[in-house]
Amino acid sequence: MSITTTAQVSESTTLRLVNGKSITFSSNEASEAESIPAIDVSRIYSPDLADRQALAEEIGSASRHIGFFTITNHGVDMQLATNTLDQAKQFFASDRDKKMEVYTGLMPKEFCGYHPMEEYNPHGQKLQNLHEAYNWNYDASKDAEAPDPNTPSINLWPSDMPVFQERLCAYQTALIGLARRLTRVFALALHLPEDAFDKFVKAPEAGMRILHYPAQTASRTDQNGIGAHTDVEHFTIITADSDGLEVLSKSRQWIKVKPTPGSFVVNIADCFMRQTNDVFVSTVHRVINETGHKRYACPFFWGFNRSTVLTPINSCVDEDNPQRYPVMTAGEYYEWRTTRQKTLWRFRKQESGE
Ligand SMILES: O=C(O)CCC(=O)C(=O)O
Ligand SMILES: [Fe+2]
């Protein structure tokens, strides 16, 4: 972590993110003084376009200002989420050898598979990030709305845990349905036709991850559960069983996000930020588990098909906001981030003397 000191103000911290941007904040403490917007999204199911447009205005405003919001009345059966978190508890409780059979290092250009405990340290803190994770990708053959048995899925499933795969995929299928509807609302929020993005999400990126964060005893300066970062794709839908998620506001304060039973947290990610030329904010976030007990979470990472060219949306580029990023496909960006993230984070681990 690089510490810089300003003349009158106390110490501030500057961190460089994997996406190339830097962030600075003056206090490492998080507070509940600000909160993220809570949006009732039941209107995604309304047959009336005016209802969906009104919802799009709310979601668009949250995406432009903080890039994080909670959604209620989303229509997803929360039993599917509970089942997935139960499977996470069982998987992470198994032997390390068992988990290492699906080690993510076997797939250097992908995130899928098992990420061991204390493997990464993105900001060179005294201690490695205190989490372990398991990631799995979209499987076109299980897509309820557009099943395609001919596209192989890239995954590392544990060999003898069929219920694990079944429960995790059932939850993923439900979230894919919700994400397709939200994608239409985002199109409206950008004042595009509602179906403008449909073609990009026929065969989407819809990877997921389960995470286990042990209770942290070290200070938040020395260790994070997961260090400050932005997500890679278009938007993320997070389920978590406890406090711990923190979001960096525009005023550079860390805000605590409270999980509300039955709701999800949604955040904008980097591909959407690039495609909207920074009109949508891909907000920096991290997790620090100071609850005193284990924390489990399950983010769902939704992105447009890897062949989608991330040309900035016309209405997001003008004289005051000229084009900020070179154009590349979502797949090129994904691969750049994955390899960079894995090598950079491991490099910093070696640097810290492990
Ligand atoms: O555990 C959480 O609540 C969020 C995890 C996260 O931000 C991530 O995996 O990208
Ligand atoms: Fe994240």
TrEMBL record:
Biological processes per GO annotation: small molecule biosynthetic process
Superkingdom to which the source organism belongs: Eukaryota
Keyword annotations from UniProtKB, A to Z: Iron, Metal-binding, Oxidoreductase
Keyword DNA-binding set for record: no
PROSITE patterns linked to this entry: FE2OG_OXY
Molecular function in Gene Ontology: metal ion binding; oxidoreductase activity
Pfam families, A to Z: 2OG-FeII_Oxy (PF03171), DIOX_N (PF14226)
Domain Fe2OG dioxygenase stretches: 204-304
This protein's record includes keyword Cell cycle: no
Family, as annotated: Belongs to the iron/ascorbate-dependent oxidoreductase family.
Protein name (record): Fe2OG dioxygenase domain-containing protein
